[in-house]
Design a protein that fits this description.
The chain has 249 residues and is α/β, with parallel strands linked by helices. 53% of the residues lie in helices and 10% in strands. The chain has helices at residues 2-12, 16-22, 30-36, 55-66, 89-94, 126-137, 148-158, 162-177, 181-200, 203-216, 222-237, and strands at residues 26-27, 42-49, 73-80, 104-109, 116-117. InterPro entries: ERp29 (IPR016855), ERp29_C (IPR011679), ERp29_C_sf (IPR036356), ERp29_N (IPR012883), Thioredoxin-like_sf (IPR036249).
Length: 249
């Protein structure tokens, strides 16, 4: 809560037109970084040019907006100038960011001394960025195709013994009955995965992810690609760490 109050004070003194250009992001320098970041469980920081633009910036802003109601998660950016007084240049270099590799996205966790770097060597997409934050921080961000209530059951299932897993599979059936038609198909995937794990063991998850990734690498329609990508997202829900969701379970 103290972090949110501090953040509100910062926003109040920033001109409204500039706030709009940041898309809800908090602009940091080294001083405000040291004051604000420790107040959040997780902070995503993009080191970039002073006035960023382009697809990567738009992607980052989009996830920031999407995550605005997530407690204890902050999206921020550090604008770096390589001219004049060279604002934030030394600060950015401290974290391995400079004009030759901008933008650089780092995830700072309250209980970790060093940040985790987002690897954008493949793609800088909202899905990959969202998945990175979710997997590394344990903070729930819904991936395309995933259903929160079933994600929680997937975590519970994966961390239970065989008898308990059978009970959770039955519980899943009840949840499926109440799903809308739009998401019912994806809901059934959770149940299918549970049945396969009961039959083949936990190794099924990684084996299936590998199999589906091979299909994605082939020549398939955009519709099929989207369907398979969502299947992988659901499979990865079974791998989310239990410790981050104990209170909800």
């Amino acid at each position: 809560m103290s972090g949110l109050i501090f953040l509100a004070c910062i926003i109040l003194v920033v001109p409204s037109t500039y706030q709009e250009s940041l898309g809800g992001l908090v602009e940091l320098d080294e001083v405000s970084f040291n004051k604000l970041v420790p107040k959040f469980d997780a902070t995503v920081v993009k080191f970039d040019v002073a006035y960023p633009y382009g697809d990567k910036h738009d992607t980052y802003v989009a996830l920031s907006k999407e995550s605005k109601d997530v407690d204890n998660l902050l999206f921020a950016q550090v604008g770096v100038k390589d001219y004049g007084e060279k604002d934030n240049e030394a600060f950015a270099k401290k974290y391995g960011a400079d004009k030759n590799n901008f933008p650089v996205v780092k995830l700072f966790l309250k209980d970790k001394s060093k940040p985790i770097t987002f690897d954008d060597s493949e793609e800088f997409t909202i899905d990959r960025l969202r998945q990175f934050v979710r997997e590394q921080s344990g903070i729930y961000l819904s991936l395309p195709g995933c259903i929160r209530s079933l994600d929680l059951l997937a975590i519970k299932f994966k961390n239970s013994d065989t008898d308990k897993r059978k009970s959770i599979a039955k519980e899943t059936e009840k949840v499926l009955e109440n799903l809308s038609k739009e998401v019912a198909g994806n809901g059934k995937i959770y149940k299918t995965i549970m049945e396969k794990i009961l039959e083949k063991g936990d190794d099924f998850i990684q084996t299936e992810i590998t199999r589906v990734n091979k299909l994605l690498a082939g020549k398939i329609s955009n519709e099929k690609k989207n369907e398979l990508s969502q299947r992988i997202n659901i499979l990865k829900s079974f791998l989310l760490p239990l410790k981050n969701y104990k209170e909800e379970l």
